[in-house]
Structures are given as C-alpha cells and as structure tokens.
Amino acid sequence: MLKNNKIKIFGLSAVILLALLFDNIGYKSFMNKPLDATDTAKTAFFVIKSGESAKTVSNNLKNKELISNSRYFYKYLASENKDTKIVSGAFKLSASMTPIEIANTITDPSKSQYVLTVREGLLVRDIDKKLVDMELIQPGDFMAATKTFKDYADYSFLDKNTLTKLNIPLEGYLFPDTYFLNPANFSSDSLIKRMLNNFKNKLTPKMLNDIKASKRTLHEIITMASILEKEGRRQDFEMVSGILWKRFDNDWTIDADAAILYITGKNTISGEDLKMDSPYNIRKNRGLPPGPISNPGLNAITASIYPKSSKYWFYLTSSKTNEMIYSTTNEEHNINRAKHL
User: Fold this and answer.
1) Is the pLDDT score of 298 beyond 60?
2) What's the CA gap between 237 and 57, in Å, rounded?
3) CA neighbor of 203 nearest in space, from 152, 154, 157
4) Could you tell me the residue ranges of all domains in the chain?
5) Are 258 and 285 in contact (CB under 8 A)?
6) Local structure of 140: helix, strand or coil
7) Which H helix or E strand runs over 326?
8) By C-alpha distance, which of 282, 307, 277 is closest to 293?
9) Residue 321 DSSP code
C-alpha cells in the first residue's frame, strides 16, 4: 500500500514537473512572439486608466487582442518589477509587437499619451479647462494661444481680418474630435494646428462650392452652425437651420439665447441680460453675432450649409420631453410656450 502511494506521488510529481516545464517553455515563447507578426500597419490606442492594476491591464490587453495570454504577461511584469511601473495614458500598440515590447512601452512615461475628447459644441474656454485638468497647461494658456496665433496664411479658410477682432479668434474652427496628446512635447499651438487641419480635411470641395453658391461666407456658415449646436438636437439641426436662415434673410432678429449665454457664461438668461448692449445679443440686434459661439461638429456645419425649408418661423424645446416644437405664427408660438415650457 505504501509502495503504491509512493508511485502515485511520484507520478503526480512528474506530471506537475512536466506541466511546469511546458508552461515555462510556453512562457518564454510567448514573451518573444507577437500575437500577429504580419499586423505591422494597424495600430491601436490602448488606454490605461489611473490606478488600474497590472492584472487588469494584462486582461485588457488580451481582450483587445494585443497579446494571447494575460497570465504570462502579468507574470513577466511581476518578475521584472514592472507591475508597479505601469503608466496611465494612451499608448500606440500593435499585435505585431512582442509582449516584451508592449511591456516596455506601457512602463515608459515618454510613450504615454493623454486622450483629449472635444465634443461638438464645446468652447475654447472648455478646451482650456480640460487641458488644465490634465496638468498640461496653466489656466488661460490655450485661450491665450488662440489670440497669439500667427499662421493664418497656412489656412485659407480663416478670415484673419474678421477673426483677429474677436475676443477668442479661432472659436468655431477648432474641430471637435478625439486627440491623443504626448505630455512630453505638448504645446497649445501644435494642438491648435492639428484641430485646424482636421477642420480643413472635413470640408469637402463640394461643400465649399455650395457655400460660395449660397452667397454666404464660410464665417457666416460656421457662426450659424455654432448656434445650431447650442440650440437644437442633432435630428433638428436642418429644420432649425432653415428657420434661423429664414429669419436672417428676412431681416428678423435671430432670437437665439445661446449667443447671450456665450457672453455671460451663465446657464440662464435674466431680464437684464436681454437688455445687454452687445452684438452677441441677437434677441435685440438683427443679424448673426460677430463670430461662432461654439466649435460645431460636421452635422451642424452640414445643416448650416443645407438648411431644410419649411413653413415654420418659430421653435422651442419642450421642458417635459426635450422635443422640438415648431410653429408658423407668433400666436401659435405663444400657445406652445404656455403648453410646453
């Protein structure tokens, strides 16, 4: 009986030893072999959030199909004392990289990039705050960079004479998107140029030709698009655009509260605000404000170029359903106001 137990123990030990041996062979092979050596062109931005553990990062790399074995990867990090050196941020990674190369990348602060998401309708001051929160700039640096920007000649769509008269010259032209920023060499000016290049790439030759044919300037189109971002939902952009351009063309006041809020920086409008003597008070003054009041996205810009014609002259957003309510007369509009606001 004792002999049989010894045989069993020996057999079990041998199995364990073989398993460890094969596991070690697999581990060494894994660390030096990319998941897909042929995937040399495709890269992905892999985001590591502040405080994520090495195990979580290892599992996420496996889920993103950048490595084949999260357990081996974590084992390597721990054995090389890299598990506590992982850097938060976004990293350019590829399945053609070996796990060792990936491990070296995500523990190198110089390879970390921050993710800046600029959603449609944000203002320059909002972007400034995001950059401050990332600890990339001091408060006001990004806004100051828009005022000292000098490379207007590189962007034919920018009307330098008009824009440099504005308090925030490039408002409206900094295209909303996700930008990956390297903190090691970040500058506000380089980000501004990337956003302007993005804007330029989004406007097709047809769009530019159609703007010219409409007898409107690009600056007017972008200013209207910036109002649409603040006044309506995406599905309502074309209809609201038609109403506002109709008011503009018929020498009505545009009556968009968003332009007043842009100047006051508040969320609500008071009676005193409505009396404000400012070109941005388009409840009081006819025409468009001097410049954009937000940085519009492609949907709003497209709606500004191609407004939808309708019988309506008025609109409001229901406080109950957030639905846009349209009306043809001021009397009907007042009834809707009492009903929906």
Assistant:
1) yes
2) 41
3) 157
4) 31-111, 114-202, 205-310
5) no
6) coil
7) strand 324-327
8) 282
9) T
